[in-house]
Amino acid sequence: MSSDAMIFLGFFGLIFVLRIAAATIFFYFILPKGDQCPNCDAPTLRVQSKWWNRLMPFLRTSWCIACGWEGMLRHGAVTPHAPTPAELTKKG
Q: Are 74 and 37 contained in the same domain?
């Protein structure tokens, strides 16, 4: 194989790898940070997924009770526990 062919393959191979890396970084940063659902903005529940949590420990697997969305979110601030109506009316 000639030197020109090696340079051509190396250059386009590098562009291919950089394109995948750029897309991965871009999609990581468009994921919401925290525990808010990207569809309905309700707090989500963390779901334990042995496979995903080992593969991507920097993301959290989540499920939304309100709309049923499930997916990955970045770690961030967690919504504080909202008081229930019973707790609000309790005197004491």
A: yes
How far is Cα 2 from Cα 15, in angstroms, rounded to an integer?
20
Q: How many domains does the chain have?
A: 2
- 72 in Cβ contact with 59 (< 8 Å): yes
pTM: 0.60
| Per-residue CA distances from 24 to 18, 21, 33, 35 (Å) | 10, 5, 16, 21
> What are the pLDDT tens digits along the chain (92 aa)?
678 899 999 999 999 999 999 998 998 888 888 888 888 888 888 888 888 888 888 888 888 888 888 888 988 877 777 656 666 566 65
Residue 18 and residue 40 in one domain:
no
- Whether 5 and 48 share a structural domain: no
Structural domain that includes position 88: 33-92
